[in-house]
Amino acid sequence: xxxxxxxxxxxxxxxxxxxxxxxxxxxxxxxxxxxxxxTNTKFWSTKDPGQNVFTFTAGVGQVISGWDEGCLTMRKGxxxxxxxxxxxxxxxxxxxxxxxxxxAPLKFEIEIVSINGQ
Length: 118
What we know:
Blueprint: E1 3-6, E2 9-15, E3 27-36, E4 42-45, E5 54-57, H1 65-71, E6 79-84, E7 106-115
Antiparallel strand pairs: 1-2, 2-6, 3-4, 3-5, 3-7, 6-7
């Protein structure tokens, strides 16, 4: 399952990064594939046709908390698998548009492509 980042967020490094670490407030660009933890059913990927990398500011609540917490432990070039308990993902409301039911545990393979445009 990997290393416990926080209550509800586990991280398994798939490829170590060699660049700088992600810090709170950094604008990071990632490749990401999300799947339902219980079935491994993919619900979204930036690598799918017509999709692009995703950019957000780390650690300020622009994304689900499991992403913020996991990405703040990563480095540029790193690819890791984050496993999120429901309260670190979409919680009781789920995300019906993507087929994410309420209280669903999730997995995200995230690659840090750039930090602050570098």
